[in-house]
Every structure is written in structure tokens, then in C-alpha cells.
């Protein structure tokens, strides 16, 4: 059964029609519009403030700072799109035309992919910094990181093309809606399996493996202060997972619906994803406004002495990552090894390393 020509039917147990648009569910659209409104009011100015803090207040750009900047750009761009979706849910019809239907949902998917990929890169970088601190500067030069970020943005733009291909404005009763229109069930599977695999399964497999290794290494060290920065990144990871999990579950339901043979189970699956799509999509947007809140609580100790620059100092403090702290652990075993580690770190232009290797008091200040 193709999504473009769903035949009307009635679920005998609930007497609910399932040929309606995802924006024709009163409860779902009302909740979705409310969630998106709150998300926009909190998330848009929050991410703009993060971008301004990094660009205007950060003294130098560490790897962590660059990743957080790109994450804020992706999240802020996603927040900028929310007014269009709020209007769509409130009016329950698409009023922006065919081109905007394709462009807005394409940009939405691009920034969703970019957000999770940035978080994945953060986790991989922390893993390298923890396990191989002496080698981290060789593979995380600013030029290398910028190239990686450029390639990542290109890849997510390419991966989001199906959203532009399948999204169309179509008549639905007396109104018009912007939905994915699939001629074949295989198109449904292609679009949503791509989102599940590239936007959830692969990134979170990498993230989970990275943090298992990171936390195991942290437990082996006596330097408990290093856990602070790891907790911040871990909180970002968990937050993203919690808010995007319902959306990906509904994707799985829709894929199962497309693959399932005709029958009552297929009808029930169709009902589930129709009724849940608007709400789960709105919940997914919450992750993009949650990061500024996490940064605020993590950096509140900087506010009194740094003022509006507290966010930039937080990112620089977070940038005092495991590479430099690992060198302190090694110094307990051998002074000569400690000197070698410091020599390597001093060559790195990353402020994470320079500040920590020059003084024993600076890491404590920035990591406070």
C-alpha cells in the first residue's frame, strides 16, 4: 500500500479512520504546536547566544569549541525553522507552497543529521584524547578539524536529498498538506531506514562504544576532576538520544507498516504512525534547545567573574580535556614521560593543551 494513495478503512476496534493526514489529529497537532512554541522561545536565543559567545568572546578555538560552535549552528538553524512548522500545525494546512515544502523539510533533516554527527565527533575526539593523549595533536590540528567539518556538512546535505525528493504538497480533503509521498513501499523503506541508520544507529553505536572506553579509563585514574567535562558531553549525548528516540521509533513503525502484508496489523501500524508523527517530531526539536540549558548550568560558576563571556570560558574549560590531564597521570609513573608529554602538547595550538602545560593552577581555574 503506497502512502500516496492510502485507501480508506476503519479499524474495527477503535472506529478511527487512518487515511487522514498527520496534521489532522487534534491532540497531536495541539501538543506539537505548544511544544514547538516553547522550544523556539528557549532554543533560538539560546543557540544564538552560544554562537555569539564563541565567535566574539572565545580567545582561541579548540577542537571542542569548534565542534560546539557547529552544533549550535545546526541547532540554531533548526530552531529558526520552527515558526513555519508551528503555523502548519495550528492551521492544519500547508500555506507556503511546494518549493518551501521541500526546502524546509530538507533543511530540517540536514540540521538533524549535522547535530548527531557533531555529537559523535565530540565523543570520538574525547576517546582519542583519553586513550592516546600524545597522539591527539597529530590528528586534531585546526586545519584537519576544519576539513573534517566541511566534509561532514557536505555528506549530511547529500544524505538529506530524499526529504526533498519525496516531500510534496498534496490535497487532503478540503485542505492541502506537506507530506512524504511515496509511489512504492520501497521508497518509504529507503527514506526512513536512511534516517534510522545514518541519524541514529551508526552515530549512537560509535558514541556508546566511545563512552564505554572513556568511562573505563576514567575509573582507572585518581584525577576525579576530569569527570566534569566528560559529564557535560555525556549529558549532551543522553539528551539527544532521549528526545530523538520516539521519532526514530515511529520511523521504525512506518518502515514495518510499509513491509507488512495487508491485514489488521498493517492497519494498526498505519494508525500509530499517523497519530504519533506530529508529536514525536516536535519532541525531537527539544534536543536542540536543551544544549544551551545544559551549558548554562555547567558554566554557572563562571558567570560572576566572566559576565557575558562565561559561555566562552566554559568551552575553553571543557577544552582542557583528557589529553592534558592524562599527562599528569603519566607524570606519577615517570618524570621523563611527563616532560615528553608536555613537549608534545606545547606544539599544539589548541588552547586546551597550552594553558594546562604552562601552569598547574590554570587547569583548576578553567575547569572550576
| Termini Cα gap | 58 Å
Radius of gyration in whole Å, from Cα?
23 Å
Shape: globular
CATH superfamily: Rhodopsin 7-helix transmembrane proteins
Number of discrete domains = 1
Lateral strand order in the biggest sheet: 1-2
GO cellular component, one term: plasma membrane
Pfam families: 7tm_1
Keywords: Cell membrane, G-protein coupled receptor, Glycoprotein, Membrane, Phosphoprotein, Receptor, Transducer, Transmembrane, Transmembrane helix
Family: Belongs to the chemokine-like receptor (CMKLR) family.
Any overview of this molecule?
This protein is mainly α. The protein has a single domain (25-366), classed as Rhodopsin 7-helix transmembrane proteins (Rhopdopsin 7-helix transmembrane proteins). Helices cover 76% and strands 3% of the residues. It has helices at residues 26-57, 63-91, 97-131, 136-139, 142-159, 161-166, 185-219, 227-259, 264-298, 300-306, 310-318, 322-333, 335-346, 351-358, 362-366; strands at residues 167-172, 175-180. A two-stranded antiparallel sheet has the order 1-2. The longest helix has 35 residues, at 97-131.
Summarize, please.
The protein has 368 residues and is mainly α.
Topology diagram in text:
Elements: H1 26-57, H2 63-91, H3 97-131, H4 136-139, H5 142-159, H6 161-166, E1 167-172, E2 175-180, H7 185-219, H8 227-259, H9 264-298, H10 300-306, H11 310-318, H12 322-333, H13 335-346, H14 351-358, H15 362-366
Amino acid at each position: 500500500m503506497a502512502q500516496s494513495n492510502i485507501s480508506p478503512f476503519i479499524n474495527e476496534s477503535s472506529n478511527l479512520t487512518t487515511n487522514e493526514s498527520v496534521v489532522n489529529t487534534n491532540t497531536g497537532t495541539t501538543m506539537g504546536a505548544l511544544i514547538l512554541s516553547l522550544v523556539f522561545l528557549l532554543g533560538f536565543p539560546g543557540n544564538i547566544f552560544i554562537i555569539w559567545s564563541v565567535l566574539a568572546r572565545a580567545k582561541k578555538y579548540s577542537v571542542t569549541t569548534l565542534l560546539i560552535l557547529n552544533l549550535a549552528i545546526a541547532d540554531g538553524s533548526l530552531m529558526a525553522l520552527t515558526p513555519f512548522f508551528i503555523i502548519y500545525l495550528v492551521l492544519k494546512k500547508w500555506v507556503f507552497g511546494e518549493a518551501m515544502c521541500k526546502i524546509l523539510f530538507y533543511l530540517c533533516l540536514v540540521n538533524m543529521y549535522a547535530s548527531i554527527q557533531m555529537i559523535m565527533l565530540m565523543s570520538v575526539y574525547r576517546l582519542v584524547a583519553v586513550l592516546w593523549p600524545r597522539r591527539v595533536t597529530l590528528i586534531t590540528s585546526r586545519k584537519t578539524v576544519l576539513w573534517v567539518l566541511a566534509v561532514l556538512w557536505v555528506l549530511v546535505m547529500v544524505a538529506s536529498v530524499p526529504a526533498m525528493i519525496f516531500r510534496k504538497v498534496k490535497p487532503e480533503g478540503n485542505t492541502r498538506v506537506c507530506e512524504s509521498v511515496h509511489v512504492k513501499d520501497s521508497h518509504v523503506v529507503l527514506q526512513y531506514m536512511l534516517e534510522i541508520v545514518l541519524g541514529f544507529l551508526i552515530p549512537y553505536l560509535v558514541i556508546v562504544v566511545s563512552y564505554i572506553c572513556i568511562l573505563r579509563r576514567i575509573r582507572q585514574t585518581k584525577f576525579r576532576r576530569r569527570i566534569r567535562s566528560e559529564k557535560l558531553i555525556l549529558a549532551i549525548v543522553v539528551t539527544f538520544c532521549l528526545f530523538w528516540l520516539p521519532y526514530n521509533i515511529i520511523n521504525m513503525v512506518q518502515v514495518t507498516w510499509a513491509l507488512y502484508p495487508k491485514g489488521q496489523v498493517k492497519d494498526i501500524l498505519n494508525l500509530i504512525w499517523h497519530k504519533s508523527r506530529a508529536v514525536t517530531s516536535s519532541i525531537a526539536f527539544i534536543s536542540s534547545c536543551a544544549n544551551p540549558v545544559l551549558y548554562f548550568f555547567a558554566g554557572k560558576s563562571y558567570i560572576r567573574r566572566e559576565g557575558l563571556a562565561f559561555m566562552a570560558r566554559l568551552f575553553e574549560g571543557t577544552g582542557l580535556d583528557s589529553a592534558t590531564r592524562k599527562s599528569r597521570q603519566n607524570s606519577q609513573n615517570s618524570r621523563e614521560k611527563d616532560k615528553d608529554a608536555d613537549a608534545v602538547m606545547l606544539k599544539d595550538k589548541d588552547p586546551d593543551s597550552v594553558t594546562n602545560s604552562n601552569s598547574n593552577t590554570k587547569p583548576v581555574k578553567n575547569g572550576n
